[in-house]
């Protein structure tokens, strides 16, 4: 896929997200989403959306990638960027729940690369996609 004007490293990350998109389990919506999470060692953790007939157990691609990375031993602050892709009119953005998970594990300035299958893209940051986020620091009531 050609993403005009996008750096080679972010293009590679979107390509990895597209590969993950092909693994999505979406028998109900047929709406495939892929994510690729780059860690501090240069490893890519793939994620795809996984549906369930009961709907609420469904998991988004971004959270699948993050939870996979955490289960592989990664911890908050060890991530460099995430890319997410879908077959949408414009670049796909993480849902609200995924944004909250990114806030928990990623630095506020970590890039979030959003794309679609037509080659459209945009880049924001974790803080940019969830301003005023509830963070671990929000739990500090001064009693510690």
From TrEMBL:
<feature type="domain" description="CMP/dCMP-type deaminase">
    <location>
        <begin position="8"/>
        <end position="137"/>
    </location>
</feature>
<protein>
    <recommendedName>
        <fullName>Cytidine deaminase</fullName>
        <ecNumber>3.5.4.5</ecNumber>
    </recommendedName>
</protein>
<dbReference type="InterPro" id="IPR016192">
    <property type="entry name" value="APOBEC/CMP_deaminase_Zn-bd"/>
</dbReference>
<dbReference type="InterPro" id="IPR050202">
    <property type="entry name" value="Cyt/Deoxycyt_deaminase"/>
</dbReference>
<dbReference type="InterPro" id="IPR006262">
    <property type="entry name" value="Cyt_deam_tetra"/>
</dbReference>
<keyword id="KW-0862">Zinc</keyword>
<feature type="binding site">
    <location>
        <position position="60"/>
    </location>
    <ligand>
        <name>Zn(2+)</name>
    </ligand>
</feature>
<dbReference type="Pfam" id="PF00383">
    <property type="entry name" value="dCMP_cyt_deam_1"/>
</dbReference>
<keyword id="KW-0479">Metal-binding</keyword>
<dbReference type="GO" id="GO:0008270">
    <property type="term" value="F:zinc ion binding"/>
</dbReference>
<dbReference type="GO" id="GO:0055086">
    <property type="term" value="P:nucleobase-containing small molecule metabolic process"/>
</dbReference>
<dbReference type="GO" id="GO:0042802">
    <property type="term" value="F:identical protein binding"/>
</dbReference>
<dbReference type="GO" id="GO:0004126">
    <property type="term" value="F:cytidine deaminase activity"/>
</dbReference>
<feature type="active site" description="Proton donor">
    <location>
        <position position="62"/>
    </location>
</feature>
<comment type="function">
    <text>This enzyme scavenges exogenous and endogenous cytidine and 2'-deoxycytidine for UMP synthesis.</text>
</comment>
<keyword id="KW-0378">Hydrolase</keyword>
<comment type="similarity">
    <text>Belongs to the cytidine and deoxycytidylate deaminase family.</text>
</comment>
<feature type="binding site">
    <location>
        <position position="95"/>
    </location>
    <ligand>
        <name>Zn(2+)</name>
    </ligand>
</feature>
<dbReference type="GO" id="GO:0072527">
    <property type="term" value="P:pyrimidine-containing compound metabolic process"/>
</dbReference>
<feature type="binding site">
    <location>
        <position position="98"/>
    </location>
    <ligand>
        <name>Zn(2+)</name>
    </ligand>
</feature>
<dbReference type="InterPro" id="IPR016193">
    <property type="entry name" value="Cytidine_deaminase-like"/>
</dbReference>
<feature type="binding site">
    <location>
        <begin position="49"/>
        <end position="55"/>
    </location>
    <ligand>
        <name>substrate</name>
    </ligand>
</feature>
<dbReference type="InterPro" id="IPR002125">
    <property type="entry name" value="CMP_dCMP_dom"/>
</dbReference>
<dbReference type="GO" id="GO:0005829">
    <property type="term" value="C:cytosol"/>
</dbReference>
